[in-house]
Amino acid sequence: MWRIGQQAVLCRRTQQLWIRGFIEGGEVMTVEIRIQDDDSLEITGKFDLLDEDGNAYGHHGKLRLCRCGASKTKPYCDDSHVEINFESKVRA
Amino acid sequence: MWRIGQQAVLCRRTQQLWIRGFIEGGEVMTVEIRIQDDDSLEITGKFDLLDEDGNAYGHHGKLRLCRCGASKTKPYCDDSHVEINFESKVRA
């Protein structure tokens, strides 16, 4: 839920209401894409996962996408990166 | 920019301002992760790209992440999927 803080001034002459407001909190969670060492991409938050045709995958706000190329359940990770000894430790 | 539509009632006795408002538009863009055929993950919107230690990568709201496992510039795609003839056409 959004919490809206307001300061409002009512202009008597124009009957216009001037509002200086701010919006705080709310449910907009930044989407996080974490590149795990020798492992998949872990994605959390509110996002649309689409195929090439624009069809959306249903999801619950947290999933792991294959980045080693070997998963048999692409786009999802199925831990094939362990079988193929996938190595990739990246740092920002 | 947020456009805030308001209906406001000023209670003279309590000097409280009751606002029935709605928020429309604004800049909250849903993050889109598109799984491209035989190609990378194309990601657009407002998101954090983090390494295993939680360090953030700077970006401009659109990037391509490798999902074939062969990129030499991981986590980013460098078109190595073409060289290795990576094949993956997934549908939701």
From TrEMBL, chains A, B:
- List the Pfam families: zf-CDGSH
Domain of life of the organism encoding this protein: Bacteria
Mind telling me which GO cellular component terms the entry cites? cytoplasm
Q: Does the keyword Metal-binding apply?
A: yes
Q: Name one GO molecular function term.
A: metal ion binding
Family matches, as InterPro entries:
FeS-contain_CDGSH-typ, MitoNEET_CISD
Q: Which residues belong to any copy of the Iron-binding zinc finger CDGSH type domain?
A: 42-87
Keyword Metal-binding found:
yes
The UniProt keyword set, sorted, is: 2Fe-2S, Iron, Iron-sulfur, Metal-binding
The identity of this protein, by name, is: CDGSH iron-sulfur domain-containing protein
Recorded source organism is Candidatus Lucifugimonas marina
